Every structure is written in structure tokens, then in C-alpha cells.
Automatic annotation (TrEMBL):
Belongs to the glycosyl hydrolase 25 family. This is GH25 family lysozyme. It holds the Pfam family Glyco_hydro_25. Coiled coil: none annotated. It comes from Rhizobium tumorigenes. One of its GO terms (molecular function) is lysozyme activity. GO terms for biological process: cell wall macromolecule catabolic process; peptidoglycan catabolic process.
């Protein structure tokens, strides 16, 4: 190799390294749209996520914060006079204390976020149990305001661990009856595809705006998916694909276990639609789509527990 050729290669390599990270990734063929500064970023957290607010607020990309609110049915306060779901009285008291502390943390985080211009939302983790009681629990816990996002989180299809899809519909309808707005739906790829494939059975659930969790460089080719022509938000980073060595996006003031999401719009545009509340329009299958639909043998097999599709 001649000296001139070697020098050209070295200079070219240095120029590539000098590019911003998102441009280097583009050259590598990875789209990773969250690197576009025009796309609003949203974090979601639960009570055990550590957050340094002074550091986090320095990141002007962070436009929204969705906090875990309720989880299934409420904890039992009357530990000595109730059956407290078979737990010991001591365990019942411990769970109530944790529950009470988490509610105070929720309210504190909401105050900090909203006072600093960050959009606020809350989610309910759906569990087995009466869906109307769970909806009332969520509304009592989160006390959602008209400018706040409401979310139903369905983490899997195992009815022993998570709210069934039939109950999720009942939950969503009850939220609508009490607030005038539907929640949006948080679902991973397995759950979202199952709902899309059975959208005639879940005509409300399949039309809730989708908060889509999937950890890939891009999900553009996923849609349309059932009634969903796209996502309302996309969770692209979590503890599953973020470590101390490599992470799609690091949020200052947080650890690698924080969930990071994006919306394909600016913060100003996101603020206009943030509270959501409506259903997405139904998609009508064309004859060609019906002809190419998979038969029963080709349908997805649902296991007892479904994990994220990485």
C-alpha cells in the first residue's frame, strides 16, 4: 500500500470519528431515529428508579415523564381485620407502608416535573383481578388532571400474572366513563401483535393509541399493525438493552435501568396531543389483505409468559 493511499484512509477514518454519534450510526446503516433532536423524548419510571432531578433537567430533549402509579388492586390498610389476601399481618403492614411511600413519591415527582415544564403521565400495571376496581384504584392513586396522559400497561399474555385482554377492555371503558377519555395502551411486540391479529375480538383495546415497547434500531417496518398505522410513543431503551458500557440514549441523572421513549414529533407538537383520549380509526381489510391472511396453523403460539422481542 502506497503512502498516499494509507494517508487517505487515515484521514477518512478520522473524519468519520469526528462526526456526531448519530451521523456515524447512519453511516453504519442504523437509523436510530431517537438521535434526531427534533424528536421529543419521554422517560418512564417506577418507584425504585433513582433520579437526580438537577441533572435530569439539564437535558432539554426530555419532554415528558410517565410514572408508574397503581399496580393491580390496592394494598389492604386494615391488616388486623381483613384476610389481607392470605399474607401475614406483618407482611400486610409492610406492603401498606411501601404503598403509602410510593404514592408520596409519585406526587412529589409530578410536582417537580410539571413545575419545570415537563409533560406528566401515569400508568397502571394491569394484574389479575376485578378490572373496574383496578380502574378506580388507578384514578384514586393517579388523580389524573385534564392535561395528563393515562396509560394501561399490559406486560404479557399470561392471565396468571397480567390483566387479561378482555378485562383490559373493561378497564379502558370504565376509565372513559369516569374521565371522558380513553387511556393509551403500553404493550410489547408480542402483546401488540396478538391484539392486532384479534382486533375484531378487542374492538376497543385494538384502537387505543399504542405505546410500543421494542428494543431495535428502528421499528418503521412494523406498521401498519392491525388498526395501528404507527405508534404514539416508542420505548427504545430500558435495562434490557442499556448497560454501563453501551446504551441507546443516556439520560443524565438516571441509571441504565431507566426506560427511554420517543415520539416522532417536537415537544411543542407533543404537548398539543399529550392527554390523548380518543380511539384510533379502525382499518378496513381490503380483499387482497384478506386473501393473504395466515391460516390457523400459521398463527402465533402464545406461551405462558411472553418476553419482549429484542
Amino acid at each position: 500500500m502506497g503512502k498516499r493511499t494509507l494517508l487517505t484512509l487515515i484521514v477518512g477514518s478520522l473524519l468519520i470519528l469526528a462526526l456526531p454519534a448519530q451521523n456515524r450510526l447512519a453511516l453504519a446503516g442504523e437509523r436510530q431515529p431517537w438521535n434526531d433532536p427534533e424528536h421529543a423524548l419521554i422517560i418512564d419510571a417506577y418507584e425504585l428508579n433513582s433520579i437526580d432531578w438537577d441533572a435530569l433537567l439539564q437535558d432539554t430533549r426530555i419532554s415528558g415523564f410517565v410514572s408508574k402509579a397503581s399496580d393491580g388492586l390496592p394494598e389492604d390498610y386494615a391488616c388486623k381485620t381483613s384476610d389481607h389476601s392470605g399474607d401475614t399481618v406483618g407482611h400486610c403492614k409492610t406492603m401498606w407502608r411501601k404503598y403509602a411511600v410510593s404514592r408520596e413519591l409519585f406526587r412529589t415527582r409530578r410536582l417537580i416535573a410539571k413545575s419545570n415544564g415537563i409533560l406528566w403521565g401515569a400508568y397502571h400495571l394491569g394484574r389479575p383481578g376485578n378490572p373496574i376496581d383496578q380502574a378506580n384504584h388507578f384514578l384514586d392513586y393517579a388523580d389524573p388532571k385534564a392535561d395528563e396522559l393515562m396509560v394501561l400497561d399490559i406486560d404479557g399474555l399470561d392471565p396468571q400474572q397480567f390483566m387479561s385482554l378482555a378485562d383490559a377492555q373493561i378497564f379502558s371503558i370504565h376509565i372513559k366513563e369516569r374521565t371522558g377519555r380513553y387511556p393509551i395502551l403500553y404493550a410489547n411486540d408480542v402483546v401488540a401483535r396478538f391484539i392486532a391479529d384479534h382486533r375484531n375480538d378487542y374492538q376497543i383495546l385494538s384502537r387505543l393509541p399504542l405505546w410500543y415497547a421494542r428494543y431495535k434500531p428502528d421499528v418503521e417496518g412494523t406498521f401498519p399493525l392491525g388498526n395501528w398505522t404507527g405508534y404514539a410513543m416508542w420505548q427504545f431503551s430500558s435495562a434490557d438493552n442499556c448497560s454501563s458500557r453501551r446504551c441507546p440514549y443516556r439520560v443524565a441523572g438516571t441509571l441504565p435501568d431507566i426506560d427511554v421513549n420517543m415520539a416522532s414529533m417536537t415537544k411543542t407538537q407533543l404537548a398539543r396531543i399529550w392527554p390523548q383520549g380518543d380511539l384510533v380509526p379502525p382499518r378496513i381489510d381490503t380483499p387482497s389483505m384478506l386473501a393473504s391472511a395466515p391460516g390457523p396453523a400459521a398463527k402465533m403460539q402464545v406461551t405462558a409468559l411472553n418476553y419482549q422481542d429484542f
